[in-house]
Design a protein that fits this description.
Blueprint: E1 5-12, H1 16-26, E2 33-36, H2 45-48, H3 53-56, E3 66-67, E4 80-81, H4 103-113, H5 129-136, E5 137-139, E6 153-155, H6 163-174, E7 190-193, E8 198-199, E9 202-203, H7 206-211, E10 220-223, E11 226-234, E12 251-260, E13 263-275, H8 278-288, E14 291-292, H9 294-299, E15 306-307, E16 319-322, E17 324-326, H10 333-337, H11 340-353, E18 365-369, E19 380-385, E20 401-408, E21 416-418, E22 429-431, H12 438-455, E23 466-469, H13 477-487, E24 488-490, E25 525-526, E26 528-530, H14 545-560
Parallel strand pairs: 1-2, 1-13, 2-10, 5-6, 12-25, 13-26, 14-15
Antiparallel strand pairs: 3-4, 7-18, 8-9, 11-12, 12-13, 16-20, 16-24, 17-20, 17-23, 18-19, 19-20, 21-22
Helix pairs in contact: 1-14, 5-14, 12-13
Amino acid sequence: MSPVAEFDFVIVGAGSAGCLLANRLSANPDHRVLLIEAGGKDDWFWIKVPVGYLYTIANPRTDWCFTTEADPGLAGRSIVYARGRVLGGCSSINAMIHMRGQASDYELWAEATGDERWRWGGPDSAGETLTLYKGLEDYFGGADQWHGAGGEIAVERPRVRWKILDAWQAAAAQVGIAPIAEFNRGDNAGSAYFHVNQRRGRRWSMADAFLHPVAHRPNLTVYTHTQALQLLLADDVRDDQRHGAWTTAAHRATGVRVLKDGHIIDVQARREVILSAGAIGSPHLMQVSGLGPAGLLAQHQVPVAVDLPGVGENLQDHLQLRTVYRVQGARTVNTLYRNWITRAGMGLQYLLLRSGPMTMPPSTLGAFAKSDPALASPDLEWHVQPLSLPKFGESLHPYGAITPSVCNLRPSSRGHVRMADADPLSAPKIACNYLSTDADLQAAVRGLRMTRQIMAAPPLARYRPEELLPGPQLVSDDDLQQAARELGTTIFHPVGTCAMGAFDTRGLPRSATTVLDTDCRVYGVAGLRVADASAMPTITSGNTNAPVMLIAERAARAILG
């Protein structure tokens, strides 16, 4: 055991939320802040080049390389479950799509937490979500009623367009999905090219946005290649911490035990420990520390500090159904990549102009629609890619093709994250339970049928699209449900495993599965917060990085306020 290190705030996880929190908390020179990251620095070439996600995902240099438990909803398959393990976390390996979600998502958060501030906001609303988003942004078009300028998060237009995607957008319009300017105004119904977190054609991670500009601060320390092993707890709860979810706390978080350079160090936190290790890492660290479902802890001989049934439960994710259509006479990534001259041209275009296919996120064009006209807001989203491949990590198909992937934005299926044993270095068990409800199976069928309608529309006829997956021979609902099980894969949006919820006036949670209050404080453990995707009570409509930044900003203001 090496000597103890002491700080005011200890943040576990230098991903998107952790970078923002380190920035905000260290702005006061009187605060000594430690940021702990299990991975290394983000100075690798392929992190900064947008198409580098092909090399960073499923690479232990930058990814935890988790796999899920065999899932009945995926025809018994286990799938790769990428999570960032590097400065910037998932924002260093993700799709770079800037997506706030829809106003209706935050209505659900307000109802779950009893906090009106989560609402989207407007002339007749107490919500502050839109205002906070605007404050975080540096939007390419400047400040307006929807966007902010001068914030840390760069938001740009994509730097490449594709005629085949323009035709897909026109086809979508003919089946009622109209083109719109963008997806970040609260109602995403329509189709548009995604806005991206890039700056002049390079990935703009949350480490670029929040951590690197303040890394010189003498009161900010960053430990890389440092694994958090256990939360340190004490029984001496200070009176000034007894509020919110901490009102009835019997324990206080005093620090974190870490493994650094082969040595175990107990890092002390004078004020707070903040977990920003993500929807997989945060509940796992809590469980091995004695915070979680009592039955699970007892099963693995972990002493129960606080029985928190919701820790690791309520896992939600967007399941994408990757349909593939062969096309003719269209420029796609497949057709460009199979010729060494055009491959060289793509590289030269990027080096000289910071434009072209190498600036492309995994998905370029998106669309939102309702699977049922009676719904208040869209529940389906398409990510349309001008390429195709058998599965992620494999070579592109040797012919022109596109991949319109459709996902259910509001899945009712729920999974869980549970420790495999008491060893904090053992990977947790991740069970997603995709397509485990009739509602999710029905949404999958509707999404596949709507995709076929779009692909059959006249604007795409000149490209003679040919359905390869799931295949035109699959017609019945049963056929398409089975196809969804065989085609479905994660879009890497796990949330909800330490969910916020409402508390009564005595500081008691109204639901047994609630873990956090609206300020991200952990029930029963003073001085401990969780600020990351695991705090979401329900999943947002679309990519989850921007909503994580919203949560982190709210948590930082609560801590400092």
